[in-house]
Amino acid sequence: MVDEQGRPEPPLTGDELSTLLGFLEFHRATLAWKCSGLDAAALRATLPPSTMTLGGLLKHLAYVEDSWFGEVLLGQEPVAPWDTVDWSADRDWDWHSAADDEPDALRRLCEDAVVRARRSVEQALADGGLDRLADRRKADGSAPNLRWILVHMVEEYARHNGHADLLREAVDGATGE
Fold this sequence. Notes:
Layout: H1 16-35, H2 40-44, H3 54-74, H4 93-97, H5 103-126, H6 146-172
Helix pairs in contact: 1-3, 1-6, 3-5, 3-6
């Protein structure tokens, strides 16, 4: 089932995996909805004193998708555009550089990262399920499992969707869950 904004409803009585994936997909669709139909100026608009933008949210969450599911979970090398970023020079490059990107490019970047993330999750599920540990370990040798990463991603989107609510209302008055 989908709601009036086209977002998939998380299952009310699903198992652990379908509930986790259901909420993640719902939040991904919420961000897409909050950023839909906006031009470059609207995606660059801030709500002072913050410098956060809807375009920055799109680019940041694309980075987070690629980082957690590709790099951390599967141990892959960063993909473009993240592979050429000097993160030590600007830890917030994903946020700042979005102002230079066209709206369709930002949306496509986020959509493509989500497609890659879904493939990574499928691969991890086939190779250990929710208990599969991430390939990239912390300095102490510990690693999160897929379950933890999925919960973290739901948290990441939920937090930033709250920001998106405020930014979208400031841009054009649009409100809604």
